[in-house]
């Protein structure tokens, strides 16, 4: 059984569907990203998984416990960082984390151990006694993750953890999240594609409240990218270019002589034909020095999958009425 399971999740505000019919599963130890434009429904999904928002339809479970019917148990299994960290600005970092640990029923005998552990994991040693209100945005995000980790949860839910960070802080946050792989299952949301691909094992693309695709970067490109460019570097081979042109799905080839008798061939094709191309190279007797690919890329796939129509604009206007990124 998957650690996290969502079945036909829906959330309605009157006639407005924030999410509708969303189903997915996440295995223990995975880092999974929800990718979508602002207002796509990512935060709604995370709030439901954390038992902070009841679904209008469907159900989700964590370790077999329903987010609706076993909410207290689910909350004990998860650590949650909302888009705005839940900090008390007048408190200092360590007293705040002690307070959160007690709220989350960490035994008194283990509070200091757990606080020291999350301080070390999130690199907060230099600001451990600084008032929260005096911290930079990057350190506030780190404290937000520390409070989510202080009770050593099985699942960590992070809503836009890199939002508002500068480039250096983004790299530091990425490294922090990656360091949690294996010990914790992590599900995070972002509208920044490059960070999702660098951080996550798998991606769930959400658009207008629906799950429109899922998989790792290569899976998504192979499934949805229309064109691929395969680059060959070979030496020798009789009639290779003509043989490549005969392959079904090959749209064009371009040959460029390079030094030492080598030839570079660029092949435009529909779909992934690398295996067939390699077979043609071998059959020609050519020596193969390179076989690489350039696809449409995940960015192009993402733009195909999300809708930027007038309906999206209307949806965004509806989000403002309801109150923020759903």
Description:
The longest helix is centred in the middle third of the chain and has 13 residues, at 137-149. The chain folds into 2 domains: 4-222, P-loop containing nucleotide triphosphate hydrolases (Rossmann fold, 3-Layer(aba) Sandwich); 227-295, ACT domain (Alpha-Beta Plaits, 2-Layer Sandwich), CATH 3.30.70. Strand 12 (250-257) and strand 13 form a beta hairpin. Helix 3 (93-103) crosses helix 4 and helix 8 (217-224) crosses helix 11 (297-305). It is built from 12 helices and 14 strands. It has helices spanning 42-49, 71-77, 93-103, 111-121, 137-149, 167-179, 193-199, 217-224, 240-245, 274-284, 297-305, 310-322; strands at 4-13, 16-26, 31-35, 57-62, 65-66, 78-81, 155-159, 185-190, 202-207, 210-215, 227-235, 250-257, 262-270, 287-295. It has 326 residues and is α/β, with parallel strands linked by helices. The chain has a 6-stranded mixed beta sheet with strand order 6-7-8-3-9-10, with helices on both faces.
Q: What's the overall average pLDDT, rounded?
A: 89
Total number of distinct structural domains:
2
Q: Strand count, sense and closure of the main sheet?
A: 6 strands, mixed
CATH superfamily of the largest domain, by name, is: P-loop containing nucleotide triphosphate hydrolases
CATH architecture of the largest domain: 3-Layer(aba) Sandwich
> What's the total helix number?
12
Give unreliable regions as ranges. 308-324
Number of strands: 14
Oligomer: single chain
What is the alpha-carbon Rg in Å? 24 Å
Strand content: 25-35%
Q: Remind me, CATH topology of the largest domain? A: Rossmann fold
> What does the overall shape look like?
elongated
| Helix fraction by DSSP (H/I, runs of at least 4) | 25-40%
> According to CATH, what is the class of the largest domain?
Alpha Beta
The side-by-side strand order for the widest beta sheet comes to 6-7-8-3-9-10
Order of helices and strands: EEEHEEHEHHHEHEHEEHEHEEHEHH
- The rounded distance between the terminal residues' Cα atoms is 29 Å
- Content-based structural category: alpha/beta
